[in-house]
Amino acid sequence: MTDPTSLDNLHDIIPFSPQPLWPPAPGWYVIAWILAAAAAWLLITSALRWKRNRYRREALAELALINRGSPPTGDELAPLPVLVKRTALAAYGRQTVAALTGEPWLAFLDTSLSTTAFTQGTGRLLIRIPYQPKAPLDPAEAKNLIHLIETWIKKHET
C-alpha cells in the first residue's frame, strides 16, 4: 500500500498556454476609440483656439516692433492707441467698440481686463498720445504703458 502523502505521487504542474496578443479583448477596442476621440477633440479645440487668438499674436508682434529696446518717445508710441483699438475691434466687434472714445474707451479697457490701470493709471496716456505726440514722456511711464497694453492684449476677456 502506498502512502498518499508521499512525494512520489506528485505530478508536474502543467502551465497554461500563453494568450495570443492579437486579437485584443473587446475592452481594448473601447479604450482605443475613447483615446482616439479624446485626441481628435483635443486637436480640434487646440486648432480653433489657435485660430481664434490670431489677432492677439499679430497685435503682440506689432507691439514688439514699437518697443524695440530703448524706451520709446511720444512719436514712437503714436501707433499704440490705433493698435489697441484694432485689437479690441477684432476681439469684440465693431458694434461694441467703434464708437468708444475718451473716458468710455478707457472704462471699456478697464472692464475687459478687470483693472483700473487705464482710467486711473498709465493707460490714460492712450488718450493723450495721439494729440500730443511731441510732448515729453517719462521713460518709466512709456515702459509701464507698453507693459499694460501687452498685458491687456494677452489677458483681456472676450
UniProtKB/TrEMBL annotation:
It comes from the Bacteria. The chain crosses the membrane at residues 27-48. Keywords: Membrane, Transmembrane, Transmembrane helix. InterPro entries: DUF4381. This is DUF4381 domain-containing protein. It comes from Desulfoluna butyratoxydans.
